[in-house]
Write a structure and sequence with these properties.
With 645 residues, this protein is an alpha/beta fold. The protein has 24 helices and 16 strands. The chain is 39% helix and 13% strand. The radius of gyration is 31 Å and the shape is elongated. GO terms for molecular function: ATP binding; ATP hydrolysis activity.
Amino acid sequence: VGKNVAVDRYLSLCGAEREYSQLHRDSTVSSLTATPTLEDGILRHEDAPLVRAALHGRVCVLDEADKAPTEVTVLLKALVADGVLPLPDGRILRVGDNVHADFRLVVLANRPGYPFHGNALFRECGDAFAGLVVDNPDVDSEVALLEDVAPSRPHDERRRLACAFAELRARHETGSLAYPFSMRECAAVARHLELYGSEDEGVGDALANVLAHDAYAPQRAMVAAVFEAHGFEGVADKLQRKLDGIVPSMAYDVEYTSIKGSGGASVPRTGLSAPKFGKVDPSGNPHVGGNTWAGGSGGSDTAGLGGRGGPYRLWDGKHVPHQVSDEAKAEVSEAARAEGRRQAQIAHKKRLEEIEGMTENEWDTYKGMLDRIAPHVASLREQLGAAKDRKSERTWLRRRSDGELDDDRLVDGAAGERLVFKRRGKPDPLDRKPTEEDEFRKRTLLFLVDVSGSMYRFQMMDGRLARMLEATMLVMEALEGLEGKYEYAIRGHSGESDGVEFVEFGQPPSNRGERLKVLQRMVAHSQFCDTGDRTIEATRRAISDVSARGFVDDEEERKHLVVALSDANFSRYGLDPRWWAEALSDSDAVDAHAVMVGSIADEASLVAGALPRGRGHVCFDADELPVVFKRILQHARIIDDGEEM
């Protein structure tokens, strides 16, 4: 956003002399205060910019401070808050003594997390500074900037460009886009147009050249759509052509249809006989009541929705279902219920066999789902991938020809040895063998998905099953390729089971075909399972299984994670939300959360309100899923909390 330019202009107006230093991940306490040099075999320490500014009354600008290690930023806090800073040569800087009265310190930093990958500087020492947030400019200010950058371009074009970037930033804030498009990219596009714009090369080409680094991401289509909505034609084609020259094209055609509706009209009661599938009406007409047709509603004996005595749930995907009363359901005999369960189990087994034998043509069953969540996948994957991994952190690499002078090799340097430097870097993996401790450090993530019968039954009312499937796909897609950091499992719960294994630990689906089968098995279980609710039992079992792994890190107490998704259908089965609250708090080694993806009336909000603070979440919109997951990951300290300075 131009922090450096703003500071330079400010110092110029003040007539202040500047000392500048750019920090980085390899910065050390000694490098912040002194710069060692070796001349003619003699070691000398020169004052670093910070010390020179303090002694001579200048302004020290420390750039990229969020990249520096914590021990370096703590040193800054000691100088600013305590007014004392020891130096390597024995001198001590003291405010009010040898520190010049005109000394000022300006620290520049970005917020933590993706895409800057910095530390939470403000959290460590923000209370010692006067914090100032430099945000992206408003549209009018950005238009004024673009007028200076590209004066020959039409005013309308500059304004539309600024508005398009403003919309991209808004989408990033909501979690729809992974990359926070800044003023820098906007100015770069305008500058490219000013220098190379012509009839043959317009805004689409400029965007393709400037944004090519994002072209391969799944968000390419959304970025192009934003610019085209603001009057820039052909952006998608230009980005695709630019992409074709960089990486091979990858495309998956999938489709998913979410149909919503509601029902509840009075249904005429039909006599009971025995469970059966029923006849299929080729005309596709709706059938309410009766005991003849499969896929109807409010009837008896046949497979359908809202009725009684049928073997399993079956929706025609078109018509609004009708519901019989609980009193009518109670008239079904135990023998008929048992026969219905037997038929459901047979049909379920047959459906699972069909799923295992799926062909490529069946990708068409959920094209819309994958396209819908692609931007969210990119955002979540970046955040998960950016999480710190101790075994891949940098260490001191010694015996180097450049870098920082190694104090342990000063004698060798004086004797003429050249390899007397050290620098921070990742150790050679060949020098280190993996240990059991490395496997233990992986974060264990267990996702409990609700595959109870109510998910299938009320899908047409509020789309809860679709949200569950999208959440599951989001998790599987985002964790692909991150097996070195995370080990995850996906387990289902319903009235029939408190642990249906869809993805087992250490066995993630290796491709999108296998991930599709996971979703299909979830739908099948929801369709054929028995009624009831075992959310609380499933939560306790999941936390018990995961807590057996202990803390990820005993020093920092970083925890494993359990996320339980449910449609909050507690009152129907006499469940008290406080029981769930107790289950979520079963283990100190596990951070457990509950996400309600469906509700009858306001039950989801009531359940969430009874859970421990920060552990209950309500999500009725698929677009909110990435935001909810991000909040959970921050609470579990898996990703940075996004504090801004």
